[in-house]
Design a protein that fits this description.
alpha/beta, Arginase, Chain A, 8-stranded parallel β-sheet, 10 helices, 39% helix
Length: 309
């Protein structure tokens, strides 16, 4: 079995405007990197639209309808200073959430070993009823609850290594004893959540905030000492990665100092957890990463590691 890449051109067409960090070249750059000879054996799939049943497991109908109603016919519409819609944003957001569900299907049915979902807009800041932080639907949560509802994978876990705390995923998982969320992130930093004492209603949230300037040693210690043992203790049926690459030292909107080798190492460690706990089921979902060179290099290395090459 190989690794599946799920993406769609519509996700490039979401355009929040000139000089916005979450711009279309992020995905263009990733897809160019994944066209090299190293990735000839990568399985590929167009991301489908998420349907209402998939979205409603996470978001109320009022949130879904309000978002889709706000998509402009031309120009831009701002939900807040960061979260901006263009005419193709609705299509892109539906495919971002639907792509994770399609990846879950392929992994759960053993069509592939694991999957990487290269779509945008990202999702981990989206709460049940609140779009924010470039995010409209919480893609990884939609995929997690799809895995539970459709494939009977009751215990779902997300490891989020984006430099920003995934407040949305934490918010959605907070009261669910069979959903585990772990995060390393820079603190203080947007969105201002993710303190170590935020542990969920069932001790199912694990935050390991790291200071500005933290690098390989602090990140790997957080993973080795806290997050990897907690994931193994939780024993998920499927493991997700919220794979933001903005903790890289080159990233312009944060101040951590990770490098490509750190993301390779973390991917290897999470693959071991998936092998041990959930019959290898792992789905990685693109979140942040705003330096095009670093994002492309990190993503390519991440996918090579998922492929075992």
């Amino acid at each position: 079995m190989s690794t599946l890449l799920v993406t769609h051109h519509d996700c490039i067409e979401h355009d929040p405007g000139d000089f916005h960090p979450e711009h279309p070249d992020r995905l263009r750059g990733i897809l160019r990197m994944l066209e090299s000879e190293d990735f000839m054996l990568l399985h590929r799939m167009d991301a489908p639209h998420a349907d209402h049943a998939q979205l409603l497991r996470v978001h109320p109908l009022s949130h879904i309808e309000h978002f889709l109603d706000m998509v402009p016919h031309d120009g831009h519409h701002s939900l807040d200073g960061d979260t901006i819609l263009s005419p193709k944003t609705g299509e892109a957001a539906l495919r971002s959430a639907g792509g994770v569900c399609a990846a879950v299907d392929a992994v759960a049915q053993k069509e592939v070993r694991n999957a990487f979902v290269a779509t945008r807009p990202p999702g981990h800041h989206a709460e049940r009823s609140q779009a924010m932080g470039f995010c409209f639907f919480n893609n990884v949560a939609v995929g997690a609850y799809h895995a539970r509802e459709v494939h009977g994978l009751q215990r779902v876990a997300v490891m989020d290594w984006d430099v920003h705390h995934g407040n949305g995923t934490q918010h959605i998982f907070w009261d669910d004893p069979d959903a585990f969320y772990a995060s390393t992130h820079q603190a203080p930093l947007f969105p201002g959540t993710g303190e170590a004492d935020e542990t969920g209603a069932h001790n199912n949230i694990l935050n390991v905030p790291l200071p500005a300037g933290a690098g390989s040693e602090q990140f790997r210690a957080a993973m080795t000492d806290k997050i990897l043992p907690a994931l193994r203790a939780f024993k998920p049926d499927i493991l997700f990665i919220s794979a933001g690459f903005d903790a890289h030292a080159r990233d312009p909107i944060a101040n951590m100092r990770l490098n490509v080798a750190d993301f390779v190492w973390a991917t290897e460690e999470l693959l071991k957890v998936a092998d041990e706990c959930c019959d290898r089921r792992l789905v990685s979902v693109l979140e942040g990463g705003y330096d095009i060179v670093a994002l492309g290099a990190c993503t390519a290395a991440h996918v090579r590691t998922l492929m075992g090459i």
